[in-house]
């Protein structure tokens, strides 16, 4: 692991006030980068399926973009986690966002040249931005007190709202801008994504100093050395962490991701097939993304507890699935409510699952474990995205929505099991 200068470690180690000030500054940098990252994320969510449907000529394969960029995000999550563990959050997150920007530019080029092969490759690389956008939420927790970890995750996520909500509502103007440049209209949002991801990476690279993970690890090692007994015997190794907490947190986030991605991916296709335009699609997806991130400020995981919020995620996602399945085809009202609940349920699941993971992992291996878990989350999203188009083509959007809602109910027995088998403090 890259080392932090000893003087810098001493400067923050013996002053809780300085450490808290650095925590707040680090969180501010994460928030700024997440605003740009949210705008980059919104492009693929809003028009990825529509662009694939246009280029491939069938709705049955419209779930492929979500599958590809979430599959790409799986590989990126692994790499970003390993880079962050060895060289710090700054290097890992900046690399991921820059790669996402390159992928978005590749999608634009694929649309211009009408190359399906290039589109698939570019979507894989674009997925790096999605993975990095998720992993950035961990950076705010490295220096946070234990009782503020979920709040730090919430603040990092809510900042994504500003860009993520603006992105879908810029679909029409970005489409017009792209058309003026001789680029297909549906590729316009990816122009925005390319620039937004690049800015997110540059903000982290130049401003996130000193690196929060490297510094927190160095301070933790120093604290253990100072409190260890002065003997010639080898020191006791650091406990590996709470495996049950890791398993429960991972399960919560994986099930949440599958249900959310499957329904979200096919909603634009469902709407367009029933006569809704791109502006209406942008409004619905914008509301959905807003409810994915904006409620983070009041989610209250630190106050209410991880387990109650995980149960709330399952119930909320079920309600979203039922409403989406029963929404009249020509009406936007019920569909907007359904997608809002879908985003809210995902928010509950991701924040409670993230807090469970952070609580259960030691600093020495935290970034690596977090990266590996995000690989599973990305693969879950890829599975949901790939199957969503097949289910809709073979059955209907209503069947897909109900299936996603019912699947999310598995969260409840998982967290009940964790309560029965985990000793209370």
Would you spell out the secondary-structure blueprint of this structure?
Layout: H1 6-13, H2 16-56, H3 64-87, H4 89-113, H5 116-139, H6 149-169, H7 171-180, H8 188-207, H9 212-227, H10 243-273, H11 278-293, H12 301-304, H13 306-326, H14 333-360, H15 366-394, H16 397-408, H17 411-421
Q: What features would you describe in this structure?
A:
The chain has helices at 6-13, 16-56, 64-87, 89-113, 116-139, 149-169, 171-180, 188-207, 212-227, 243-273, 278-293, 301-304, 306-326, 333-360, 366-394, 397-408, 411-421. The two termini are 33 Å apart. The chain is mainly alpha-helical. Helix 13 packs antiparallel against helix 14. Helix content is 80%, strand content 0%.
Average predicted local confidence, pLDDT: 83
Tell the overall outline: globular
CATH-defined superfamily:
MFS general substrate transporter like domains
Strand percentage lies at: under 5%
Helix coverage percent: over 70%
Structural class: mainly alpha
Sheet with the most strands, sense and barrel status: none
Report the strand count.
0
Q: What is the helix/strand order?
A: HHHHHHHHHHHHHHHHH
CATH class: Mainly Alpha
Please indicate the count of domains.
1
Number of helical stretches of at least 4 residues: 17
CATH topology: Growth Hormone, Chain: A
What is the rounded distance between the termini? Answer: 33 Å
Poorly predicted ranges: 230-239
CATH architecture: Up-down Bundle
Q: Please give the radius of gyration in angstroms.
A: 21 Å
